[in-house]
Design brief:
Strand content: 25-35%
Number of helices: 14
Radius of gyration: 24 Å
Distance between the termini: 59 Å
CATH architecture of the largest domain: 3-Layer(aba) Sandwich
CATH superfamily of the largest domain: Phosphoenolpyruvate Carboxykinase, domain 1
Number of domains: 3
Structural class: alpha+beta
CATH class of the largest domain: Alpha Beta
Length: 553
């Protein structure tokens, strides 16, 4: 899907797009950005080779560059302002944006073109405007997506054309305003433009660009997915949805599922973070060629570093021989990150519509796996996806990290109405895609929780795709099913550790968690006017069943 030229349809688009044409701005290349990054004061050039640099137009001897952002090393969601929600504050924010662009255009600026989407069914031209002093973030943005150069530009020319604007991203990390100490992000999703002000973290640029691409896809009957998707052997694709720390990347990128896969069950990864499901054309499309992953598990001189393009917010050391190397494992700070190639495993850029969708939840009231037998409940459980925040991923107070949160469809980057996502996932399930829930955290009452190891979660996915799990109705939770042969497949302790009981204390705990979901979605309906009762009713039915058990007439 290529874009066609359209005149700006809003003041926001007009301001941001016009900034690209100022005398102070010039188009740049990946090679120039690499050269400028080498001179950027805070950047460190390591001795690690940049993986296959020539494909991006970089010199053969290019090295992995590291940038560290200061005190904030994660996203700042509270900086976000949506144009459609501004109301009477619109003129205030227009003045702020206009002043920010004026001050920016008095400095030297760079313009980089890239392409979002890896298949001719969905390819969008994107443009990033930043100061010359932010070359490293621009370089990372070009690598994370694809720079507008061959071979990607050749595919783009043949891609499907729709009446959409190119994506435009304006980012000025040097902007400051005492009224906005956490920075400011202005998003006009209808016009495919975003301004990112006062924020250094690369993830703001990546997720801001994806936000616009996802929203554009939804307008064309696609499902916006913050998750991972893979194929295993000849089985239908499996999509997993979860926030960082939920096991999304571990499940998606595992090539052997802790040794449970057979030789003929070859894993092919499409992506572990961002994709679109085209409901009209029965195809799933990855949006990025690279992976933006945490480095908390990357050891010193880890072989995986061979596939690195770049790194952010990690430490560096110099060995006696003079080599400058990455020190990861989150020793320096939380949320160290890298951009790396998918060549570390077997991969492709697209696949068919997923046959199975898994909601990864960190909810101790739920067993390790359930099958959702009701389409309405499948949507409701995705819309009320419950998890815990991964440490350091977001710029939030430390006390908030301990709290369970609900993040619909594990996508905190959604800017279109939530009810639209609900409608799109309902369409997906009506087409025959099955839905499952996996708790990847721990099961049981507070202070009595039993951990759910990663190896168990991986083996569950293996048996799930093989269709080996036999299911029985979970009578206290209508619409959910639990394994009938768990001991046989996953060890003799499976039922003893993870089989839900009918004890009153546990049922009350489960009921309270259901009510948390109902309350959240009801507030979305009654306060935000962003939810339909039909997506809440299946949870109310399930809660009512438990109420009758706890309080028989």
């Amino acid at each position: 899907m290529a874009t066609i030229h359209r005149l700006p349809g809003s003041s926001w688009r007009a301001m941001i797009e016009s900034a690209f044409y100022a005398n102070s701005v010039r188009k740049t290349t990946m090679a120039e950005l690499y050269s400028l990054s080498l001179k950027q004061p805070e950047v460190v050039a390591t001795s690690h080779p940049f993986y296959k640099p020539v494909q991006f137009g970089l010199p053969k001897g290019a090295k992995v560059l590291i940038s560290n952002d200061g005190g904030i090393v994660g996203r700042t969601a509270r900086a976000r302002r949506l144009v459609r929600e501004m109301g009477k504050d619109k003129d205030k924010y227009l003045r702020i944006l206009g002043e920010a662009i004026y001050r920016f255009n008095r400095r030297e600026g760079l313009w980089l073109e890239a392409i979002v989407g890896l298949h001719h069914d969905f390819m969008i031209k994107a443009h990033l405007l930043s100061p010359v002093t932010d070359a490293k973030n621009m370089l990372d943005w070009g690598v994370n997506f694809t720079p507008s150069m061959r071979p990607w530009s050749d595919v783009y020319k043949k891609s499907r054309r729709l009446n959409e604007h190119d994506i435009v991203v304006f980012a000025d990390p040097e902007w400051a305003d005492p009224e906005f100490p956490n920075g400011l992000v202005i998003i006009d999703e209808e016009e495919n433009c975003i301004a990112i002000l006062g924020l250094r973290y690369f993830g703001e640029r990546k997720k801001g660009t994806l936000t616009l691409a996802w929203t554009m896809g939804v307008r064309h009957n696609m499902v916006a997915c913050h998750g991972g998707i893979k194929t295993i052997g000849n089985h239908t694709p499996v999509a997993v949805f979860g926030l960082s720390g939920s096991g999304k990347s571990s499940i998606t990128n595992s090539h052997d599922h802790a040794g449970t896969l057979k030789k003929n069950e070859k894993v092919t990864v499409i992506h572990d973070d961002a994709f679109l499901i085209d409901l009209d054309n029965d195809i799933t499309v990855a949006l990025e060629p690279s992976l933006f992953d945490k480095t908390d598990a990357v050891t010193f001189e880890d072989p995986i570093i061979k596939f690195f393009y770049s790194a952010q917010n990690v430490a560096v050391t110099e060995l006696p021989g003079g080599r400058t190397l990455i020190v990861a494992e989150d020793i320096r700070n939380d949320n160290g990150r890298c951009i790396k190639s998918r060549d570390m495993f077997n991969h492709t850029d697209s696949c068919k519509r997923p046959g199975k969708v898994i909601w990864l939840q960190k909810d101790p009231s739920l067993p390790p796996v359930c099958k959702v037998a009701d389409i309405g409940l499948a949507v409701a459980m995705g819309a009320s996806l419950s998890t815990m925040r991964a440490k350091g991923v977001e710029n939030v107070p430390r006390e908030e990290l301990a709290k369970l949160v609900i993040e619909p469809f594990a996508n905190p980057f959604r800017v279109h109405p939530l009810t639209v996502d609900c409608q799109q996932f309902r369409k997906l399930f009506k087409l025959g895609t099955e839905c499952y829930i996996m708790n990847t955290h721990a099961f049981g009452m507070p202070e009595q929780e039993i951990d759910i190891p990663k190896e168990l979660s991986l083996s569950i996915v293996t048996e799930m795709v093989r269709e080996n799990i036999e299911w029985r109705e979970w009578k206290v939770f209508p619409g959910l099913m639990v394994p009938k042969n768990g001991n046989e497949l996953f060890g003799t302790d499976f039922d003893r550790h993870y089989k839900p009981t009918r004890e009153a204390e546990y049922l009350q705990f489960l009921r309270n968690r259901m009510q948390d979901r109902i309350t959240y979605l009801s507030n979305k309906r009654d306060i935000d006017h962003d939810m339909e009762s039909s997506f809440i009713d299946p949870l109310v039915v399930a809660r009512t069943v438990i109420d009758k058990i706890l309080n028989p007439i």
